[in-house]
Design a protein that fits this description.
The longest helix has 15 residues. The radius of gyration is 18 Å and the shape is globular. It contains 2 helices and 5 strands, in the order H-E-H-E-E-E-E. It is of the alpha+beta class and 106 residues long. Keywords: Signal.
Length: 106
């Protein structure tokens, strides 16, 4: 019984450490980048900074909120693509739960 419980706990830990795919955005049109993120659920996108092309940038982008942690929400971000400098994708942003409250009861 202890072995089954231990195996279950270890499998839950391993589920958090699943590999995430990495993609270059250079040479890819915006629709392809969006399809990659949507199909994978979450992906690391690497691209050159639009302000300084000598700087390599990267980030984790997601299909929707389900791929964010409990204290994060998916917000629109932009990455450069072959056909535009502002391809909209979603990125997990950490939020304070109190910031999302419309009002408080006293």
């Amino acid at each position: 019984m202890k072995a089954v419980l231990l195996a279950t706990c270890l499998s839950l830990i391993a589920a958090e450490a699943q590999a995430i795919s990495r993609y270059e955005t250079e040479g890819r049109p915006c629709a392809e980048i969006q399809a990659i993120v949507s199909g994978d659920g979450a992906a690391i996108l690497r691209f050159r900074s639009p302000r300084d092309p000598s700087i390599q940038r990267y980030g984790r982008y997601v299909a929707d909120r389900r791929f964010c942690h409990h204290n994060e929400q998916a917000e629109t971000a932009f990455v450069p693509a072959a056909d535009t400098n502002s391809c909209p994708v979603r990125e997990c942003i950490q939020v304070d739960p109190e910031d999302n409250m419309l009002f408080r009861l006293h």
